[in-house]
Structures are given as C-alpha cells and as structure tokens.
Automatic annotation (TrEMBL):
One GO term (biological process): response to oxidative stress
GO molecular function: heme binding; heme oxygenase (decyclizing) activity; metal ion binding
The protein, known as: heme oxygenase (biliverdin-producing)
Matching Pfam families: Heme_oxygenase
Region span, Disordered: 1-27
Coiled-coil boundaries: none
InterPro entries per the UniProt record, alphabetical: Haem_Oase, Haem_Oase-like, Haem_Oase-like_multi-hlx
Biased composition (Polar residues): 1-11
Amino acid sequence: MAADSSVSNGGENIISESDDEILSPNDLSEVLSAGTKESHDKAENSPFVKDFLRGRIKRELFKLGTTALYYVYSAIEEEIEKNKDHPMFAPLYFPLELHRAEALAKDLAYLYGEDWESEILCSEATQSYVNRIREVGRDDPVLLVAHAWTRYMGDLSGGQILKKVAQRALKLPATGEGVNFYHFEGIHNPTAFKRLYRSRMNELELDTETKTKLLDEANLAFKFNLDVFSELQEIGKNIKDEVQDLSFSAHGDMGGDISKCPYYAAKMAASGNATYVCNYTKMLLRQSTVQVILATWVAVVAGLAAWYLM
C-alpha cells in the first residue's frame, strides 16, 4: 500500500484510494449528508462565507474567525479525549490526522503575536457552541460523532480553497503562516481519508432513534456555525474596509496604447463594438485577481460536487 494513498490509525495502514465503497441510504454518513443539506446550503450561502470566498475578508475579521475556531476545536478535542474509549466514538478517534487546536494556536500566535492568549476572547455565539459541545461530551458522548463529522469533514472538503483565498486576500506568506488550520499534515490523501471516516461511521451499531438524534445534532451544529458567521458579519460592519489591489495597470504602463486601458475597453465594449468586447474579455482574463476569482469558483463548484458525491 503506497504511503501517499493510505491513512493509518495507531500505525496500521487501513485504507487506500483504490478501496471500493458501497453506500446505502440508511448508512449514517448518508443519513447525515441528506438530512443536513438544507442547513449546509444556508451556512454556505451566508454573507460571511460568500464574502470570504470572494476574497472580501478583512484581516481583523479573519483573526476573530480564527479565534472562534480555536475555542470550538479546543472544546471538541478535549471532549473527544475524554471519550476516546467510548464504543460509539473510539472507531473515529484520529487525533494525529484530524485535531486542529494545535494548528490554530500557531495561527493565532502568528496573527496576534506571542501573547495571543491574553489578546483573544470567546464571543457570545462561539460560547454557545462551546457550551453545547461540553454538554454533549458530558451527558451524551455519542452525539460527538455529529460535531466531529460536521467540522472535520467540512474542513477536509473545502479547506484548501479557503486557505488559498485567505493567503491571496490577506497577503499571507506562501509558507503557511496564519493558515496552518487548513493544512492536515497527517493526511496525504483527503479523499481516501474521508472514505475511511465514512466507513467507520457506517460500521457503528446504531438504532434508528440514535441516528435521528445524530441528525438533529448535526443540524444543530450547522446552526451554531451559522450563528458564528452571522456574528462575524455584524462585527465586520464596524471594521474599516481594507484596500484591495485589483492589479489593473495604470495608464502609464500601457506604452501609449489607450486601448489597453480597462476603463476605455469597458466603455467601448458597452457601446457594442464586437472587437472591444473580445479585447475587454481577454484583458480581464489576464488580470491575476480575475483569474483567482474564476479559479476559486471553479474549485468551489468542484468541492461542492465532491461533498455530495463522495
């Protein structure tokens, strides 16, 4: 089994990309995917997420979002550690592959400085999310499956897209500082790992009532995430807009050719001149920002297709 196409638990190679996967509508992974589609769509189409995907993310807001994730993942992973031997969660215990709190701590140290722990606060919406995770870990640990599935599988599906958008919009280093959260160092093949995780979920011996409870909890987890997004969106309204470099050339860089000016080309294209319509389109596609936006949306469409088909 090749190292780059397998994942392990306790040092044992357990699945490869070539392993077949046969799913049933009654499998837990399918029950959760189908039953949370509406919640998933609401979160995905929230103003905060849509702005993020468009690269309209302010550095201060990104810092607050990273802080919220740190509190959420710290709670999830502390409760997982307490319940790692629970028969309904033990098969899904992958700390080396999945746990994010340590990576988020590195991101916060980069974003806030070495005294980051004294700089951050848990917001109201985030605290409600954290409180529910603590309650579940204490009173009904099987429901941790819903919280882990909601967060980890979502991050594996769309993390790379968000990482690239953040690096571009916030001019973060290409070496990964500030976005360690999105890098799953212990997973070399996300597709194979998600297949493994689903298979482990589907092997849990759960009755219909428990599956229904897990579905309700997964929808609740999406609601908590949406509440955090809404809170961030409101906070963002009071943060001054940061100037975005659209990378369009100034007139002085056109070598005296006014037709290369994007505004002139746009005006001529609007007048119905077919030549300028073509030239304006080509000019836009040469702009790095437009290329990133197009690439991002192509990646988003591909990621969404993967989320529902995988």
